[in-house]
Amino acid sequence: MEDMLSENKRIIAVVAIVAIVAVAAVGVVYLMQPTGGPEPIRIGVLEPLTGGTSASGRGGYHGFQVAAEQLNEEGGIMGRPVVIVSEDTEGDPETASSAASKLITVDNVDFMMGTVLSSVVMQVAEVAADYETVFIATNPTTSAFTNLVADDYDRYKYLFRTQWNVSQWMYAFFTSTTDLLEDVDSISFVTEDLTWAREATEHLEGFCNESGIDYQGVLFTPGTTDFSAEITQVEDFGPDLVLVDLLLGTSLGFHSQWWSLKPNITYVGASGLLSYPRTIEELGATDTDYMLTVNHMWNVSLSENSQQYFGDFIQVSGQKPFGTDVTSYDALMALAQAIEQAGTTDTDAVIEALETYEFTGARESFTFMDNHQISYIPPVLLQWQDTEATVVWPSGHSTGSYTDQPWV
User: Fold this and answer.
1) Residues 6+ positions from 49 with CB-CB distance below 8 Å
2) CA separation for the pair 121, 110 (Å, rounded)
3) 221 C-beta neighbours (distance < 10 Å), count
4) For residue 275, which of 52, 160, 285, 363 sits 20 to 30 Å off, Cα-Cα?
């Protein structure tokens, strides 16, 4: 499946009967709907299927795929099949902007979803506003995205987001870890020096200050391969807890270097690549046992859809779900429910429904706030024990007990 996702362009119609035509020469795969059926609802998906953030992009794509398959198995949306039309953004803002325009003007999609990286989502936001097309962002966290809606509703009312914003993200990390571990007096946060991270460190520092917790932010240049200076910086600060968020594959060296040294500090792979089960499994037991990760969901009953989604995602992708895939799933499910409530795909009617109703995805039920940001949904905190993930927080969904990292 991941080999298929490396192709630059694909159109997927997830319907009961499909004909498959592969055109290897131009890197296109079509799964065509049968003729004579109801007019499909076309969902434009923008994800980085190649490049440095492709792991997130492929996961997000699979989340849309699971949602589309489930919807079509139930008869589609208002009796119409769901068709996914996907473009590879390559993680590049200009490429994403062109791809979004193409989805709307050439592929005639009805709605758009997806994206990774703040710089990308801000470009796509302008295209969606220009063409008055509903766009649900599923991965980027920058507050600037939903600030567009708050500052100029008439132009940007088409924008929604199912991912935490930066403040919610940091709140999820902060509350879950400090509640589980207790008696945390100091925290270090380590991540790449990216747009979202600079905003994130300000929010996390604010939460720490409010709770009387000493804080250190360590942002390193993307592409760094030797993390000795950053590790020394954290050790010199001497925190009780280090939160590590790695978005880029090139940054995994930080984890490997840290884990080989095992400083006397509790280590949380807060999110990003260190929350991906496949990353954990590839690193192996010696590099993962006892590590904590903060995730959007896991194979527990957060909603009526959680466990079915978890199983279906594995069937579709061959991997366990992580973070950005469920925000994609929830985006398409929310859109489907909004269309059903509105009784039409008319843009203004769908926007009103998205603004009005509560929606059910694979996490807890949610609404969209006035700025079209998803309401806060608490995370789950996992600990990897013998290469298996155990839910250790919150207690109402725990599948096992937390074990202190033996070297701390």
Assistant:
1) 5, 6, 7, 8, 57, 58, 61, 86, 88, 90
2) 18
3) 7
4) 160
Provide CATH 3.40.50.2300 ranges for the chain: 2-164+302-356, 167-297+379-397
Q: Which helix (H) or strand (E) holds 62?
A: helix 54-73
Is the torsion defined by CA of 320, 324, 325, 326 positive or negative? positive
Q: E strands of 296-361, at which residues?
A: none
Q: Is the pLDDT of residue 242 over 90?
A: yes
Quick: pLDDT tens for 277-299: 667 767 765 667 788 888 899 99
CA distances (Å), origin 254, targets 152, 172, 189, 273, 315:
41, 23, 13, 12, 32
List, for residues 331-360, the tens digit of each pLDDT value. Answer: 999 999 999 999 999 999 999 999 999 999
d(CA 381, CA 59): 20
The single-letter code of the amino acid at 84 is: I
Per-residue pLDDT tens for 183-222? 999 999 999 998 888 999 999 999 999 999 999 999 999 9
State the Cα–Cα distance between residues 289 and 281, nearest whole angstrom. Answer: 10
pLDDT, average across residues 225-243? 96
For 360, the 3-state DSSP assignment is coil
Computed from CA positions of residues 361, 362, 368, 373, in that sequence, does the dihedral angle turn out positive or negative? negative
Q: How many CB atoms lie within 10 A of CB 258?
A: 22
Distances (CA, A) of 100 to 112, 202, 293, 403, 408: 8, 32, 33, 46, 48
N-to-C CA span, the chain? 40
Amino acid at 393: W
CATH for 2-164+302-356 (3.40.50.2300, 1.20.1260.10, 3.30.300.30, 2.60.40.10): 3.40.50.2300
| Cβ contact 124:100 at 8 Å | yes
pLDDT confidence of residue 15 = 37
What tokens appear for 295 in the block?
A: 């995730």
Which has more confidence, 211 or 273? 211
